Amino acid sequence: MSCAGSPSGLSLFPAAGGESPMSCPKVYGVVAKREGSWWVLAIDSLGIAGQVRHLDEGESVGRDLIAAFLDVPGEQVSVELEVILPEEAATALAEATREEEIARTAFAAAVAKRRSALAALRRAGMSQSEVARALGLTPQGLSQFVKEDGAGL
What we know:
Elements: E1 26-35, E2 38-43, E3 48-52, H1 58-70, E4 77-84, H2 87-123, H3 128-134, H4 139-149
Parallel strand pairs: 1-4
Antiparallel strand pairs: 1-2, 2-3
Helix pairs in contact: 3-4
């Protein structure tokens, strides 16, 4: 039986040949925070820290730090890297995320209104080419919009 969700798939039971059972790797939180030109890695649960120049080294260096501190093989350590951004950037990204969600909602509403308008024009007896002309589109352009939009004219 393998560890649930374990990327290494370590076995809980002895393998053929009498090897001792291995336990699932424990997941340790590693917090990365930029300080000057370095990323400081804090493993608060163990009270240890390290540093890396490049964030993409955070997981492997964090794993190595923990393994060395605990005196266990690196395969028995799993890390979850949490990146703490500077406050200004974190605030700007949070605002951007909220605004993107508002924009997606507004876009979905606009698409629904466009569908409704196109259906109303067709119910009013306008042909597809007339609808295209009235909207300033070519018939092929309207056809493409209808295909992408799903508003079967």
